[in-house]
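User: Please predict the structure of the protein below. I'd like the answer in structure-token form so I can feed it into my own downstream comparison script.

Assistant: Understood. Taking the following sequence of 403 residues as input:
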Amino acid sequence: MSNSLNKIVKVAHSLCVILLLFFASCKEESVGLQPQHSNKPAPVYNVDYKPRPGGASITYTLPDVADLLYIKAVYERNGQQCESRASIYTDTLLVEGFGDTEPRTINIYAVDRSRNESDPYELTIIPDTPDILRIGESLEISADFGGIHLGWENPNRREISVWLMVEDSINAGEYVPLETFYSAAAKGNVAARGMDTLAVNVSVFVQDRWENRCETQYATITPLYEVLFDYRLITPIELPGDGPTVVMGSSWFLDGMWNGIWGGDNGYSSRQNTGNWPHSLTCDLGQTGKISRIRIHQRMGNYTWQEGNLRNFEIWGRMDINYGDGSWDGWTKLMECESIKPSGLPFGEYTAEDEAIARDGEDFTNDPANPPIRYLRIRVTRTWAGGDSFQCGEMEIFGDNRY
């Protein structure tokens, strides 16, 4: 072996020894803040609480401890030990996630920078009625076109999941999941669709993020008949006063609202550039039917829940039409619609739920007592930005076309 090779081997060996010693020394020392003493801090005092839905807001006076680090509450929730913490810059600590109004024992500790804990201050609280129970009380189950409609009230915008179950076709009395809806909207308004017009037994319950559940509701529902109107039969009509049928080049024409495609550079824009409202457009459905609902798909990307996407609009209909008359005489107002952003966040901000609604479509339901129609007219009164034009990625029309 050459001298240079011997030198390389010796250097490598020395480095290995140094690294081993380094890691060994690191292993012997604990990482993080080292304890300075083992004296217990004094506990909190003047403790009081205010009930909250499913929890409590606890107030206290901090102990006079120079190295106090934080205050923590330890309690049991759904069989699990839980902990809430508060810094030394506040005198309030929140405990939450209880599914009923039974008394709860909360142990409150002062913790210093040496991780010493005080003796516990034991507090018994009685939570206010949890939001999950109030939401469950407001839950409504009803037949819908092509499925089952669920509605509920959630004024505090809690994150919930709504579980729709159907009775198993083989094992009577057992229920299996059909669809689960996740929402934090103040008003829940959803439907499971694509169902036959046969009676079905269902059960529904609401669950919060701590897995608390409301009481399960049971119902027998017979979905109403509904189909998606064939968009290939829909023909745009430009009545006097309507927006133009062809705008912004080849991809932004009125046919773009009824071509089965949404997303990307596809749809319709009124582009009147007058600043005057309302704007309107008209079409021949190519079939006679009673509308059950329409579904609006927004223009996405930087336009989601803003710009010219529809916010307030009306749906009108009739059986015959005078092509030279742009007046509203002879038209019947079927629907007055308002687009609702689930989160209520300002322009440019939206949650995953907001984005899913904009992409997958927002439903607007017609009164079944309204008459069947052949011609449909849309009257837009307000957009999300209130500019010179309105835009729409796609409009799907559902109903009963057996007329």
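That's the full token string. The chain is about 10% helix and 40% strand.
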